[in-house]
């Protein structure tokens, strides 16, 4: 009788038995905690294969993606994060996964003068995150007094990306300036103004358009460009840019 009572107590305190997939999941999380990214990736992938519809599948997919991200396998991590969004859209991991798709592409975004395909992909994914999860409050490296949400981080990334894309167009314009091709230069300066009017290169772009128009004797266009500069960029312009605008206006005939 005593043996029977003891056995019952032990059964109540014993953890529930784990199946093969659950055991693998435990092993994978242990490898993840040790930052053994290749081993974590291998086991999380096995968990997904064995139990694709289980409650742990979404977390396994997400942590596999994070393992690739931490190993700087950013293109692969973007694919896995997207699988979380696609296969487990109602999972609590879905918002963070959408953010991390953008972050993965952001990490392989190159210098402004190079091809910006990944930069544009990152911009699109961060914008999708803000559209799909506008109230996301998952903190990313924040303090209790000043929490920084994923939405805040996505907004900051978008600001950084827009600056880089503006710089891309601006550098192209400057190159055409050096090649003495003012028509092509003006096209790229105008692209800065049309698409990235609130970025640092915008003020200089407006001045250069005014100067190019003046050199081509387009006086009315010159006046419009200087007026736009005074209205939009005078307060943020450099002293040199302000002086150039004043000197250019002084050369124009009275309207």
If you had to describe this structure to a student in words, what would you say it looks like?
With 255 residues, the chain is mainly α. The chain folds into 2 domains: 143 residues, Serine Threonine Protein Phosphatase 5, Tetratricopeptide repeat (Alpha Horseshoe), CATH 1.25.40.10; 86 residues, Serine Threonine Protein Phosphatase 5, Tetratricopeptide repeat. Helix content is 72%, strand content 0%. The protein has 12 helices and no strands. The radius of gyration is 28 Å and the shape is elongated. The N terminus is likely disordered.
What is the percentage of strand-forming residues? Answer: under 5%
Largest sheet: none
Cα(first) to Cα(last) distance is 110 Å
Outline type: elongated
Helix content: over 70%
What CATH architecture of the largest domain do you see? Alpha Horseshoe
Low-confidence regions: 1-17, 139-144
The CATH topology annotation of the largest domain reads as Serine Threonine Protein Phosphatase 5, Tetratricopeptide repeat
Roughly what is the average pLDDT, rounded to an integer? Answer: 90
Q: What is the ordering of alpha helices and beta strands?
A: HHHHHHHHHHHH
- Assembly type of the shown chains? single chain
Query: What is Rg?
Result: 28 Å
Mind telling me the CATH superfamily name of the largest domain? Tetratricopeptide repeat domain
**Number of H- or I-type helical stretches:** 12
């Amino acid at each position: 009788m005593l043996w029977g009572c003891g056995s019952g107590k032990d059964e109540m305190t014993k953890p529930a038995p784990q199946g093969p997939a659950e055991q693998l999941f435990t092993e994978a999380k242990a490898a993840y905690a040790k930052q053994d990214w290749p081993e974590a990736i291998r086991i999380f992938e096995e968990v997904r294969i064995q139990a694709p519809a289980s409650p742990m599948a979404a977390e396994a997919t997400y942590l596999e993606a994070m393992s690739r991200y931490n190993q700087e396998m950013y293109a692969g991590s973007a694919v896995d994060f997207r699988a979380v969004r696609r296969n487990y859209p109602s999972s609590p991991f879905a918002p963070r996964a959408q953010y991390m798709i953008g972050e993965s592409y952001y990490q392989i975004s190159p210098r402004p003068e190079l091809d910006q395909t990944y930069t544009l992909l990152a911009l699109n994914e961060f914008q999708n995150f803000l559209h799909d999860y506008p109230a996301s409050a998952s903190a990313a490296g924040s303090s209790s007094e000043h929490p920084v949400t994923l939405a805040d981080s996505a907004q900051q990334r978008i600001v950084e990306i827009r600056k880089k894309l503006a710089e891309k167009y601006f550098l192209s314009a400057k190159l055409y300036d050096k090649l003495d091709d003012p028509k092509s230069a003006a096209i790229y300066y105008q692209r800065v103004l049309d698409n990235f009017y609130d970025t640092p290169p915008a003020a200089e772009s407006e001045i250069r358009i005014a100067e190019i128009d003046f050199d081509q004797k387009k006086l009315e266009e010159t006046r419009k460009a200087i007026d736009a500069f005074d209205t939009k960029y005078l307060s943020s312009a450099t002293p040199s840019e302000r002086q150039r605008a004043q000197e250019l206006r002084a050369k124009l005939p009275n309207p």
